[in-house]
Amino acid sequence: MELRLPSGYQEVEYIENTGTQYIITDLLFPKDLENPKIEWGFMHIGDVSGDNMVFGYMNNGAVYFEIYGSITKIYGSTGQKRYRAIADNNLAKNMLITGLMTKDTITLNGTSHAANDNYSLTQDVLPMAIFAWKDKGNVNYINKGARIYYLRFYDGNTKMADYVPCYRKSDGEIGMYDTVTKTFYTNSGKGTFLKGADITRYIDNVSVLDTRRKILLNTPYIDTNVGDLITFNTDLSAPLKSCKVSFLPVQEGEGDPSPDNVRNITGWNGVSVTQECVENITNEYSIDWTDSVGTVYGGTLDVTTGELVVDRVGVDFSTLTWTMRKTGSEHKGLSANLPYRYVPVYSNIKGPSNFMVDHYIVAGSTNAGLIREKGPDSFDIGIYGLRQNGGSANIIYAIIPVDESAPTGMAVYKTTEPITYHLTPQQILTLKGTNNVYSDTNGQMEIKYWKH
């Protein structure tokens, strides 16, 4: 097939700015279009603080798209309505993000958001900037680090501009070529753009060197699979939209926990996902959070977005502040406050003086889930337990022999206040053919993937 660009230009997968490069085009995108439409593909890889423009101009109103302060917080406008502080928690740094913005809706990687603010342009339009914001003769809000894979502007079904990443063969200058006006635009800022791999072959005018681009330029759909081993087939490589891995605490050893059979509870310092293909291709994607988060006893990690939701918390009894509740001739009762409100609990000890079942105790009403036993002092003995008292659900109780100074051991409980961390994501590409995907946690997985 004939290549889309003139022979003097080489199309590439993307162009990348590093915080100082931008392009000023000749495109005037009117403020009063009946059916405005903008399409783009980008990946943010730099600092997310402040304004980070993908494209835009301002003149008492604006046409633009940006992320602001967080990769999941976006603003945009086609000139008539605005998408203001839209939250899309499916987005992440180092993720290929496809965008489609119309007058009423913005769609990012298949998730749509309605306009939430009127935002009319009141003055004449300005030339469109790429990687920045053109503002009455000035250039502001230069993106701090992003890649653009394609950028197209429409008036209804009429294409106004189609910016293709490329470089000029004669001198290696990197920029974007507008196939509508036949114009090559280069860097208007400082430094030099970076570029992706050359695009050298097409099927139906679509590059197949980098199959992600084929996904972007066609209309894919998303399929979902769930299990501890997920198998799916695809005829096209593409980045997974989501790969969520759930995991639980691990209790070492066998049998009932007791002072003579202490079954330590271990957590996780990272998660690995392994992908195998029928063509004997194996890839492993790992996220380690040892330094940033510490040990995690249970939760869910989305490997492709880097979002870690921790819902199980470990507590060493020796670190708690215990209050005496009751003293008898042989036993005493104590209580302590846990750091987070609980749902259920694990424990690594069990026995006559330190009693807790080794798996879930579901909290319900007062003394919920406790195994009760009357002792010579006529109150519960041998219990580490959780109790709801007057609406509180973060109290733990212990009854121990009077000659013991404090409870010993550890509990892991499911908190009602999950903690969310944002880690560096992994972009997992599906492989052509049969994909077998599993994790080292042996936990339930959920994968959302592009299926062409």
Write the layout of secondary structure elements.
Blueprint: E1 9-11, E2 15-17, E3 23-24, E4 36-44, E5 51-58, E6 62-68, E7 73-78, E8 81-87, E9 97-102, E10 105-108, E11 111-114, E12 117-118, E13 129-130, E14 133-135, E15 138-140, E16 146-155, E17 158-168, E18 174-178, E19 183-186, E20 194-195, E21 202-203, E22 206-207, H1 211-217, E23 221-227, E24 229-234, E25 242-247, E26 250-251, E27 265-266, E28 270-277, E29 282-288, E30 298-302, E31 307-316, E32 323-327, E33 331-337, E34 342-347, E35 384-389, E36 392-401, E37 410-422, E38 433-439, E39 445-451
Name the features.
452 residues, mainly beta, Jelly Rolls, eleven-stranded antiparallel sheet, nine-stranded mixed sheet, 39 strands
Quick summary of this structure?
The chain has 452 residues and is mainly beta. The protein contains one helix and 39 strands.
Structure notes:
By secondary structure, the protein is mostly beta strands. It folds into 3 domains: 9-217, Sandwich (Jelly Rolls); 221-306 and 423-451, Jelly Rolls; 315-419. 2% of the residues lie in helices and 48% in strands. It has one helix spanning 211-217, and strands spanning 9-11, 15-17, 23-24, 36-44, 51-58, 62-68, 73-78, 81-87, 97-102, 105-108, 111-114, 117-118, 129-130, 133-135, 138-140, 146-155, 158-168, 174-178, 183-186, 194-195, 202-203, 206-207, 221-227, 229-234, 242-247, 250-251, 265-266, 270-277, 282-288, 298-302, 307-316, 323-327, 331-337, 342-347, 384-389, 392-401, 410-422, 433-439, 445-451. A hairpin with a 2-residue loop joins strand 35 (384-389) and strand 36 (392-401). The longest helix is centred in the middle third of the chain and has 7 residues, at 211-217. It is elongated and about 90 Å long.
